[in-house]
Amino acid sequence: MSSAAVFLALACVGATGWYASNDVAQASGKGENVLMFDDFVGAAGTSPDSRYWGHAVGGGGWGNDEAQVYTDDLANSRLDGEGNLVIEARRDGSGYTSARLVTLDRFAFQYGRAEARIKLPKGQGLHPAFWLLGTDVNRVGWPQSGEIDVIETINDVSFYHSALHGPSADGTPWALNAEGSEDVSDDFHDYWVERSPDRITFGIDDAVTGEFSRTDLDPGQEWVFDKPFSLLLNVAVGGRWPGEVGAGTTFPATMLVDWVRVTDE
Description:
Blueprint: H1 2-9, E1 26-27, E2 34-38, E3 54-55, E4 58-59, H2 62-65, E5 68-70, E6 77-79, E7 85-92, E8 95-98, E9 100-102, E10 108-109, E11 112-119, E12 126-134, H3 137-140, E13 147-152, E14 160-167, E15 173-180, E16 189-196, E17 199-204, E18 207-213, E19 229-237, E20 253-263
């Protein structure tokens, strides 16, 4: 599984062109202050708040050799008028379109808790994710930027996956994975990560699902997580990890996001 996770993390390598060089609205500190909150309240068919969210546009081979092309079209990402963000993968002729929403150049944070209440789609070939990426990726590249996968699932959601990805001294990537066998696509769940100096903890709802620290690394592996990271939400389609899309997979395939919150606790 770790090799598949590495393939996934390479999503950022094929897309460095959509990272800006400056990082804005970065935050760190203590005190349980709300640093960012979006409850996606707005008229149906409108775009999410541009103070927080931009779009990574492109694809068709990004990262894990994924099949989808990411767009900024409202067909692929929009508010539903009921307090949810819709991210929708759609069949487009012989191909697929979807959306990847990013906070880079709008919001980033260093220490604290990032969480999102999400209902995930499932189906052979689907790969939804809520993740974080170091804001210096355009300057240092991946895996030196670091990647924090808060939640990702594939196919029939027979397991969930959280992970850290970072570099070794020779530039090769490493991964630390936390997985469980629960099907979390049944309803909305609160997926979260807490970041403190030299330590990262993952959880779903009230349960801790994994915890990693600098001391867990092997000699030569680098801890690159004590710096600002931005947020990403997307639904990928196909690629080496989930495999080809199944004939029974229903499109549009929809991820619903009730809210996203970052606090400095």
